[in-house]
Amino acid sequence: MIAQLSGSATFSRRSLFATGICLLSVSITTVTVLSVRAGQVAVGADFTFFILPFALLGIGLGGYFAYLAERHHIRSLALPAVAYSIVVPMQFFIASGKFILQENLLLTLFFSAGLVAYCIGGYILSYALKMAPGWVSFLYGVDLVGASLGVLSVIVLQNTIGYEYSLVVVFTIATLPALLFAL
């Protein structure tokens, strides 16, 4: 895909790529907001303040991993996007195990699953910017628009269809970048 995003890339291929970045950003921000709610139920309100720092740490680590991956000449974001779509629901499934898991194990698994999801998301975003050096500013703008839309949409989703159905929508959105990057 790196060669496909150079100057000879078609408008439609670039549009699909930018849409994938936007949807990934929507997913990351909606997952962060919904994680706060899941965290309040699963691990208590005292620990929900750790969700945003873990999200930022994960995204930053993902950027570092993207730097390391450059040496291995990875050519596609489809596989990391598939991994992201698989890992995102795990944090919420772990949160639903509140009555089964011991508190320390629940805390460890809940924050670890979130950190892994954010690492993969940060990796995809960082590597995407490296793949298209000629239009980094455009992709960065798309990323910020997606993040804004994610925060706004999670409020609308929760108020109209509720928390549980919002999760289904967010999990669906998390799978779309993998499809777009595979095209």
Describe the structure.
- The protein has 183 residues and is an all-alpha fold.
- It has helices at 11-42, 51-69, 78-95, 103-131, 136-160, 163-182.
- It is built from six helices and no strands.
- Helix 1 packs parallel to helix 3 (78-95) and helix 3 runs antiparallel to helix 6 (163-182).
- The relative contact order is 0.21.
Describe the secondary structure blueprint for this structure.
Layout: H1 11-42, H2 51-69, H3 78-95, H4 103-131, H5 136-160, H6 163-182
Helix pairs in contact: 1-3, 1-4, 1-5, 1-6, 2-4, 3-4, 3-6, 4-5, 5-6
* Head-to-tail CA distance between termini: 9 Å
- Mean pLDDT figure: 85
Give the biggest sheet.
none
- Poorly predicted segments: none
Task: Label the structural class.
Answer: mainly alpha
Helical content band: over 70%
Q: What is the number of E strands?
A: 0
Radius of gyration: 17 Å
- Characterize the overall form: globular
Beta-strand content estimate: under 5%
Element-by-element helix/strand order? HHHHHH
Q: Number of helical runs?
A: 6
Which features characterize this protein?
6 helices, 78% helix, 183 residues, mainly alpha, globular
Short description:
With 183 residues, the chain is mainly α.
